[in-house]
Amino acid sequence: MPADSEIQRHQTDWENFISLMKYSLATIIITLILMAAFLTERTPG
C-alpha cells in the first residue's frame, strides 16, 4: 500500500472521529439542557 493512500485513510478516519465527537457533544449538551428544564423542582410563589 503506498504511503499516500495510507495517509488519506488516516485523514478520513480522523475526520470521521471528529464528526462523531461533534455529534456526541451536541447530544450530551441537549440532554443536559432538557434535564435542567424538566427535572428541576419549581415551587409556587
General description of the model:
The chain is mostly helical and 45 residues long. The termini are far apart.
Key traits:
45 residues; mainly alpha; rod-shaped; single chain; 80% helix
β-strand percent reads: under 5%
Report the count of strand segments.
0
Cα radius of gyration in angstroms: 20 Å
**Helix- and strand-based class?**
mainly alpha
- Count of DSSP H/I helices: 1
**Unreliable segments of 5+ consecutive residues:** none
Q: What is the averaged pLDDT score? A: 92
Largest sheet features: none
**Order of helix and strand elements from N to C terminus:** H
Distance between the amino and carboxyl termini: 71 Å
Helical content class: over 70%
Instruction: Please tell me what the overall shape is.
Output: rod-shaped
Short summary:
By secondary structure, the chain is an all-alpha fold. It has one helix at 3-38. The protein is rod-shaped.
List the helices and strands and how they pair.
Blueprint: H1 3-38
